[in-house]
Write a structure and sequence with these properties.
The complex is a heterodimer of chains A (393) and B (157).
Chain A lengths: L2 E6 L11 E7 L2 E8 L7 H6 L3 H9 L8 H13 L6 H29 L3 H22 L8 E2 L2 E2 L7 H24 L2 H7 L7 H6 L4 H5 L7 H4 L20 H24 L16 E9 L2 E9 L5 E7 L1 H5 L3 H4 L5 H10 L12 E2 L6 E2 L1 H18 L3
Antiparallel strand pairs in A: 1-2, 2-3, 4-5, 6-7, 7-8, 9-10
Helix pairs in contact in A: 2-3, 4-5, 4-11, 5-6, 6-11, 7-15, 14-15
Chain B lengths: L2 H12 L3 E5 L5 E6 L4 H11 L3 E9 L4 E9 L4 E9 L5 E3 L9 H11 L2 E3 L38
The chains are: A alpha+beta (393), B alpha/beta (157).
């Protein structure tokens, strides 16, 4: 059968950053994939070298619009690692609360979009409605729905007021019944099983070779989570479970995110009820020459920051590694041999951030057909409809 | 294996190839090695010690071209950073990408941003820079000068 090249991108509806995927298909099957990135390279590592240690925290906050707390978290830990300092307990708890709130809303956002791609718009609406509650909570805590600017080397910038805690707890509790219902609806749906089980499998060995991170690795049986392996902030003081599954398919990645949301709610509630007193920030006078590494488990996997100081007030090198950098190349292993209607959900399964303009064109070699992003989503939704009919729903 | 045992076994196996060990804290260790020993030492750490490859970070220092390869061993909560120093006139080193996939992208990135050559890399195309970027201009080098005079850029603070 003749090979056809299907270009997806550089702007496409599943990615935060513009990326270009060149899928080579034989009939319905994908036989090869090539990925081009760099359309949105902003040179933040270089910009950060021109900022002071305090300022670079806010610069890196702009890397991602959804997990906007992950980069500052890793960055401040890298700066603190240079001088080997410990932040006050209250700051540790506040950092944990902010990071877990972000994880909840990020996972809910992904769940909603995954539902949408599979033709379950009800899941999309429920999940995003729940996400609103969490965004409200973040607004109460930090003053902003996103880009919280809570972190600074040495602690946090803003305290949590005692009178806010009952309001926040009530709001966090209020999402639990709906979340539970959503979990049952998603995990027990036979059509969803048919669409996602055994699709886009990343084996354990591949996950290790690609050094995959976060839910992508944990779905393949690689039990790695920075929060457990290298406890920081308040994660070693809370009792929580690391969710690991073995199959590595889309369903497992979905299940992990749903179950992790419950764990995050648990961590957040514990930290809010056990918030210790004391200072929220320790002043850093100056940063001596040296180097430091900071890591944080973002919703998508480990964020890695390396900062080197030469004794001035600016870093001489600031290396940033986001989780998608390691997870994205796993497409090479997961998408080959799958059908083009499953490509949408496999590409979405690692949870690359979604922010950018929605524009996508799929064209066959003679240029007769022109699909856009909506068509590809429709293709995916049609497959679910057909399956539903076949299975008698 | 605990951290002390790991350091001991590295010294026993590769004693002649290690230049300096900086034991920064309980969780971080920086080991400077000879560039020609990079592949065997990183394969030992990655395969035998079961580490995860975090990332590599290249840097143009006043004296040499420096690369740090960061590995995490989760079960003992340790990050090992292998430091190699390459001469500025000829920054070349063996590629890790044929041995594990995780090193593929970062070596492409360092090749275009710092101009370090990775021998044996399977796919040395550009990763981040645009196509119109001229050959031989490396933006993260110390002697980088802006080549595109028409571009409007944020010059920072």
């Amino acid at each position: 059968m003749a090979k056809t090249i299907v270009p997806i991108g550089p702007y496409h509806p599943l990615q935060e950053e513009p990326e270009f995927f060149k899928l080579t298909v034989e009939g319905e099957r994908v036989v090869a994939i090539d990925v081009h990135v760099g359309y949105n390279h902003r040179g933040i590592e270089k910009i950060s070298e021109m900022k002071t240690f305090d300022q670079s925290v806010y610069t890196v906050e702009r890397i991602c619009g959804i997990c906007s707390t992950s980069h500052p978290f890793a960055c401040v830990q890298a700066v603190e690692d240079i001088i080997l300092m410990e932040v006050p307990d209250r700051a540790k708890y506040i950092r944990t609360i902010i990071a877990e709130g972000e994880r909840i809303h990020s996972h809910l956002l992904w769940l909603g979009l995954a539902g949408h791609f599979l033709g379950y718009n009800t899941v999309f609406m429920w999940a995003w409605k729940l996400r609103e509650e969490i965004l409200d909570v973040m607004e109460i805590l930090s003053g902003n729905r996103n880009n919280y600017a809570m972190f600074t080397p040495g602690g946090v910038r803003r305290d949590i007021k005692a009178e806010d805690i009952p309001v926040v707890l009530k709001k966090v509790d209020s999402i639990l019944p709906t979340l539970d219902m959503l979990k049952k609806a998603v995990m027990d749906d036979p059509v969803l099983h048919a669409r996602t089980k055994g699709v886009g499998i990343l084996t354990r060995d591949e996950a290790i070779s690609f050094s995959a991170l976060g839910p992508t690795a944990r779905a393949s049986g690689v039990a790695k989570d920075v929060r457990k392996d290298a406890p920081y902030a308040a994660y070693d003081q809370v009792d929580w479970k690391m969710i690991v599954t073995q199959n590595g398919d889309v369903f497992d990645k979905l299940a992990i995110r749903v179950l992790e949301t419950f764990e995050s709610v648990k961590i957040m509630k514990y930290c809010l009820t056990h918030l210790p007193g004391g200072e929220i920030k320790e002043r850093i006078k100056n940063i001596p020459p040296g180097e430091g590494i900071g890591t944080h488990e973002a919703p998508r996997g480990e964020v890695f920051h390396y900062v080197r100081s030469d004794g001035t007030n600016r870093p001489v090198r600031h290396k940033i590694r986001a989780p998608t950098y390691m997870n994205l190349p796993t497409y090479k292993a997961t998408i080959i041999g799958e059908t083009i209607s499953d490509a949408t959900i496999i590409l979405a399964a690692i949870d690359p951030c979604y922010c950018c303009t929605e524009r996508l064109a799929v064209r066959d070699m003679k240029g007769k057909k022109l699909f856009n992003g909506e068509d590809l989503v429709r293709l995916s939704q049609e497959k679910t409809m057909q399956l539903k009919k076949k299975m008698g729903f | 294996m605990r951290k002390e045992e790991i350091l001991k076994s590295l010294q026993e196996r590769f004693g002649a190839d290690l230049v300096e060990i900086v034991d920064k804290s309980a969780k971080r260790v920086y080991i400077e090695i000879k560039p020609e020993a990079l592949v065997k030492i990183s394969l030992y750490i990655f395969k035998d010690l079961g580490a995860r490859f975090n990332i590599a970070s290249g840097m143009d220092t006043p004296h040499d071209m420096e690369i740090l390869y960061h590995f995490t061993i989760e079960r003992i909560n340790l990050i090992i950073s292998l430091r190699v120093k390459l001469p500025k006139e000829k920054p070349e080193i063996d590629s890790l990408a044929p041995h594990f996939e995780a090193a593929n992208w970062i070596e492409r990135e360092m090749q275009e941003l710092l101009g370090i050559k990775f021998n044996g890399h399977p796919d040395m195309r550009r990763l981040l820079l645009p196509d119109e970027w001229p050959e031989g201009v490396y933006p993260l080098r110390r002697d980088y000068e802006e080549w595109d005079k028409t571009a409007i850029r944020d010059r920072g603070v």
